[in-house]
């Protein structure tokens, strides 16, 4: 089967896998009826009115331009109803009991012809893709392998010279090493057909790494004839032999072949083993299953947030986005606004468009951070330019002074994802 499959949440047949990136919507709200406060970016003593709720206007303060700020940013010429000018800074954070939830009601669609926003890479899209590096291996007490030692030090020609004679004699570890050298063009010209040959030899001899790699080739029909049945058999065998990447991918196959909770529960042991080996995708999937699937024991459900944070710490931007949501909304544990903001901002810095939109709202509403109109404007511009329409952010940008809009534009132009 194809490596890129349906999103994990869709396979639940109506059971959502937590607050996924594509399903989050943080309204740009401010406390209703709050007292005027001092804008730190305005001249001393200048009061700034608190913001109305989304959809409300500020009386006659609407700008006279024919198009909204978002249309000017995205180049969308389609007419839309004009909204009021909003300046949402109130100078103080909302009390915890009054904080808005990150309402999972959906994300506005991108403007026609605009670049669709990225919600991060979901676990099924990443199936078969390059995964995060495995954790450090336990100290090796066996006989050193000179070929692998040369490979680890970057002496690839030496590694090939030492491994090839052993590979030709049927040594599966040496066959895997030769396959890796050919697959990546290390010390020799890249030759994927030669790599496929040696992966197959090592897979037939029972090497888990080659079983996993050759299974992917069979699944995709890459340099070998497509063979789904054999691919799944090899993936299962590699998973049962303890290969973390194979465990994650075999879990994905089970979920894809058995949509709904039945498949998730069948896959759960493989997700758990893969997560223990440090595969961030498996850690993220495990957190979502523990939190949302019926019949999960309370002790496992209590660990959902810790697994999500481990996936976030590994650099998985969708996990970072969800970590921010869980911490701010109090999912899987107590609320921690500052930590939630930190994870959300990290996901935004890593290029997640949904997170960039949410960070703008967090700055506007002083949730987990101090209000900052220029930073809010920067993240708003980045998400608007990517085509993620948000009337509340468009109105916010309309209400910023020209000098702050200029600063926000400059900061957005200088931004580069980490």
Automatic annotation (TrEMBL):
One Pfam family here: Sel1
InterPro entries from the UniProt entry: Sel1-like (IPR006597), Sel1_AlgK (IPR050767), TPR-like_helical_dom_sf (IPR011990)
This protein's UniProt keywords: Signal
Matches recorded under Gene3D superfamilies: Tetratricopeptide repeat domain
Lineage: superkingdom: Bacteria
Region spans: Disordered: 32-115
Residues making up the signal peptide according to the UniProt record: 1-21
Name of the protein in its database record: Enhanced entry protein
Annotated organism of origin: Xaviernesmea oryzae
